[in-house]
Amino acid sequence: MMSSNDPAISVRDLRVTRGAREVLHGVSFQVPRGQITGLLGPSGCGKTTLIRAIVGVQIVAGGQVTVLGEPAGSPDLRRTIGYSTQNPAIYRDLSVQENLRYFAAVLGAPRSDVDRVLEEVGLTEHRRQLGGTLSGGQLSRASLAVSLLGSPELLLLDEPTVGLDPVLRKELWTLFSGLADRGVTLVVSSHVMDEAARCQRLLILRDGDILADDSPEALRSRTGTMDLEEAFLRLIEERLAA
Amino acid sequence: MNATITLATARRIMSQLRNDRRTVALMVLVPTLVIVLLYYVMDDQRSFAAWAPVLLCVFPFLVMFLVTSIGTLRERTSGTLERLMASPLAQLDLLLGYGLAFGVMACLQVALALTVSLTWLDMRLAGSLWPLVLVSLLNALLGTALGLLCSAFARTEFQAVQFMPVVMIPQILLGGILVPRDQMATVLEWVSNVLPMSYAIEAMKLAVMGADLNGDFWRDVAVVAGSILLALGLGAATLRRRTP
């Protein structure tokens, strides 16, 4: 057993190549437990690849990824990690409820979880609707709901708030904070900088390298700006000057 | 492997079909309609008697091949396969789930086609019914297994659909329907010997003729069953938990 002080995720020298291109150039970092870690960076910087490597569905070229004390992709982890892909991974020809019932059965989650997660993502009244008839935002919430089934210890969410209106976005971030308060570790990727302020820790990724790994406050003071968007730009300038 | 997950997967695929009534109607009705068409085109009881068993072989295979290859391709492109590969589901759970769900569909398909053939179309069945049903079902499962396997090599729906003639037409041409297998050029006969459909068609003919179900029939059934297991195994091997 591992102690609760051990990091939830520990990544060392992770390299990933896709085709001829190296997408991640040996990144190393740790993700503490029971916190929300924001994975930020422009589109195409390697966020999705990094999340897939942590889930254990990405072929990696080198390095080590340890998740909850086990190598990434271990069979034991398949029940303890909740994973939501960037494109909503939902059967469009099943209702929201049918989708959730199926994935609950696969994960061995209690059937009562279906109603709970519907409530959590605010889709209770749409539960009988077919996936294909949902709006983009509803679809991504349905996909998020699947990852909440079975009360995972670690949630890896790839751009969960894309296309949502500000009210829903706020509700989801309240949900994420509540989960973190209960001890769940969350890694949430986003390319929207204003979401960064809601994270306890930020990993900023650019072109397959980690630009910064710090708390939002520390980043602001280091770059001397209150605005995280501005802080991001200054980090890049800093890197280019070096 | 886990029976709960396999059954949940089969149930999920059935629900998907239930939400898509037109596909179900096409799957169940088309084979019967084509057999009826064949009956009136041939307009001759003997030729029809020779061809009907072939169609009963080909159709379950064809339909299951198509729906399975498109179905799995959709799982790949929609991201649900990646989600499942990150879950406790084993590759065989998924394949058997498809096999079970489409096996039920194949039963409906064959039941209707046989009912219509044996009543309205006066198809004579010399022996008992069960060998026919057995061979049809095996063919449906073979179609499912090969469809799963081929979908691994298709990136798009266009490619997946094109695999159908690739897999299907040589098996029909070499299956001993147009030319008896022992009258083919030696090379073609060898090829014919390794195609599972040749055995399925032979078994179906024996079943319809009501021949003694002796060693030949059971050898054919065993070859088809073996091909199903082989294709399922290869199909499972193409479903990788880690992808590039």
Automatic annotation (TrEMBL), chain A:
The keyword Phosphoprotein does not apply. It holds the Pfam family ABC_tran. GO terms for molecular function: ATP binding; ATP hydrolysis activity. It comes from the Bacteria. The keyword ATP-binding applies. Keywords: ATP-binding, Nucleotide-binding. Residues 9-232 form the ABC transporter domain. PROSITE patterns: ABC_TRANSPORTER_1, ABC_TRANSPORTER_2. InterPro entries: AAA+_ATPase (IPR003593), ABC_transporter-like_ATP-bd (IPR003439), ABC_transporter-like_CS (IPR017871), P-loop_NTPase (IPR027417). This is Multidrug ABC transporter ATP-binding protein.
From TrEMBL, chain B:
PROSITE patterns: ABC_TM2 (PS51012). Residues 18-242 form the ABC transmembrane type-2 domain. It is a multi-pass membrane protein. It comes from the Bacteria. InterPro entries: ABC-2_transporter_component, ABC2_TM, ABC2_TM_bact-type, ABC_2_transport. GO terms for molecular function: ABC-type transporter activity. It is found in: Cell membrane. The chain crosses the membrane at residues 24-42, 48-73, 94-120, 132-154, 161-179, 221-239. GO terms for biological process: response to antibiotic. Keywords: Antibiotic resistance, Cell membrane, Membrane, Transmembrane, Transmembrane helix, Transport. GO terms for cellular component: ATP-binding cassette (ABC) transporter complex. Belongs to the ABC-2 integral membrane protein family. PANTHER family: MEMBRANE COMPONENT OF ABC TRANSPORTER YHHJ-RELATED, TRANSPORT PERMEASE PROTEIN. This is Transport permease protein. The lineage of its organism: Bacteria, Bacillati, Actinomycetota, Actinomycetes, Streptosporangiales.
